[in-house]
């Protein structure tokens, strides 16, 4: 086997697969080294991609030529647009996946990328030569060389599974942990800490009484994820909804002391926004019921994922609590739920490129950086893969700004603020969220992706065609002028409830709240646009143009100082007027730019003004 590469990616989960795909697409020799080739792209927990904030990340990954959106479009068994009735900034796509189709799709996509080699093995050590990173050594002693290594080890580093008072070492149920590498990272003084997450038991669908449950079908037409997908061709299934009740809560409360979490077996912190059912019952004691979604795991399996009852209670208690719910009275469980504790590395130790400040050439992406979720992992993976490949080619790193992408928001949050609980994406994390919509992810990122070498010819052609269609649709609406004396004015007046008093263009009408694209084209007897994504784009652009322009002004104002570099040898004690606390924080973190400095917790706007004056004086 060849053992010299430019980039080695350790781990074939969601971060690792995007990292490997991005690096290889740039043309550098890339190795994806993973514990088990059969678990490439495996969904450790819920069989779903997207959701609010997360769907935005998936669209961005897609706009940059990544894998995740294409894979879910080849594996999705239910697609929905969440928040469809709300503003475009918070609308988000979510899809249930057929777990095994998803894995197969990821593997197929990777196997079709030139320069990408797959190898099954467990990284046990980083190969070092005179303090320089030169590759990895597997647990069986095989040496694989590369100047750039990306760690995407997920929940596997020092992983320990908990169920009641039982616990054992594992990366997730059924897979061994990565203990040798965890040990080495600790010895090398990387900032290692622990987090936890959990998963619910799985149910045999044949034992569920669907007749008493509310069904939730997907949307029709199906909202695909990828900008490249014209149509999803997979049979679609409904989810079902049940609820916890007083009896469920009684069972949990009576057995709380047996839960790994509350019985004192787990000390680390779990995701606040994805709490276990024990947590929900304790923290929201006033709530008498929680909604539980019964999500099918695939087309050719009866396995069902009950979303909302992640637990570390002993298995017999899990059976009781599941059976206390409507429709689940005779439920047969196929797998127990469990919690898992694992190591993560403090992401404040990384540059925004996701390269380690401590060890040049080492990159980290995904759950190892303290995030939770497939989408967060995948987006970081893409960035790390891109930047590792750029480093291999002696090119400078590329990182999107907070105003350009949720990916930019996430990376900036991670490297400047760090975390004390698993980090997941929300639209509320973005200050410029009107700009960072799902619908315009391609407009924001595909041209940049093309320049970086991530976007292939087919995607670029499709993108360019969409741009042309949008421009000609805009022009069609702009050039259609209606005068008060035209026969069309009567129909418009009927719709508005008042006569037209001056000339208007169709574009001006579309800006008004009284119209949407469909009603306007109907009244004006215009043919609709063949591509609904183009008409949606035009409508959003028109309706929100005022707000978008205002946000653009804000971005430009902030950009004037955001990217200003702080000299590497900056002596913060020499900045006049800076408090000792702020001086210590800045000295510890050594931000590269004024923008990064402004987002360090405790660094006030007043301190930033002092820093700005000082940096300007020095330059
Ligand atoms: P993973 O998907 O975990 O992939 C890691 C990969 O690295 C695996 O392929 C593994 O085999 C490989 N690997 C590890 N160590 C080595 C090594 N030394 N050498 C070679 N290969 C190695 N997310 C949510 O958003 N919500 C949830 O409720 C949720 N619950 C979860 C519950 C459980 C029990 C688990 C295990 C995960 C849960 N997650 C949840 C997290 C979600 O699975 C992860 O966020 C996501 O999979 C992270 O992707 P990743 O690529 O970083 O890591």
UniProtKB/TrEMBL annotation:
Q: Which UniProt keywords apply?
A: Cytoplasm, FAD, Flavoprotein, NAD, tRNA processing
One GO BP annotation of this record: tRNA methylation
Domain tRNA uridine 5-carboxymethylaminomethyl modification enzyme C-terminal subdomain: from-to ranges: 542-613
Q: Enumerate the InterPro entries for this protein.
A: FAD/NAD-bd_sf (IPR036188), GIDA_C_N (IPR049312), MnmG (IPR004416), MnmG-rel (IPR002218), MnmG-rel_CS (IPR020595), MnmG_C (IPR026904), MnmG_C_subdom (IPR047001), MnmG_C_subdom_sf (IPR044920)
Where found in the cell? Answer: Cytoplasm
Q: Which residues bind FAD?
A: 11-16
User: GO cellular-component terms in the record?
Assistant: cytosol
Positions annotated to bind NAD(+) = 270-284
Per its UniProt record, the required cofactor names are:
FAD
As recorded in UniProt, coiled-coil segments are none
An example molecular function term from Gene Ontology annotations: flavin adenine dinucleotide binding
Q: Where are the transmembrane segments?
A: none
What does this protein do, in the record's words?
A: NAD-binding protein involved in the addition of a carboxymethylaminomethyl (cmnm) group at the wobble position (U34) of certain tRNAs, forming tRNA-cmnm(5)s(2)U34.
The record's family statement is:
Belongs to the MnmG family.
| Subunit (UniProt) | Homodimer. Heterotetramer of two MnmE and two MnmG subunits.
Q: What is this protein called?
A: tRNA uridine 5-carboxymethylaminomethyl modification enzyme MnmG
In the UniProt record, the gene name given for this protein reads mnmG
